[in-house]
């Protein structure tokens, strides 16, 4: 397995931030919506974005052991 490049790491971190923002936005809709279908849909989307976030976190931790310790 090859170490991730700095650009790849930046992309993953940015994507994780986006997933976190999407989870927060969906949670905000769930907290104010009175329509059950909207609440259910947004709750499902929270779970989906959490899975995406967890997958990226796993990729980061899995590659941590082979990450370079200095500039390449």
Summarize the structure.
This is Spore coat protein. The chain contains 2 helices and no strands.
Q: Give the proportion of residues in helices.
A: over 70%
Order of helices and strands: HH
Q: What ranges have pLDDT less than 50 throughout 5 or more consecutive residues?
A: none
Number of helices: 2
Given the C-alpha coordinates, what overall shape results?
A: elongated
Structural class: mainly alpha
- The strand count comes to 0
Organism: Paenibacillus chungangensis
Protein name: Spore coat protein
Summary tags:
single chain; mainly alpha; 78% helix; Spore coat protein
What does this molecule look like?
It comes from Paenibacillus chungangensis. This is Spore coat protein. The chain is 78% helix and 0% strand. α1 (6-32) packs antiparallel against α2 (36-64). The mean pLDDT is 88. By secondary structure, the chain is mostly helical.
Lay out the secondary structure.
Elements: H1 6-32, H2 36-64
Helix pairs in contact: 1-2
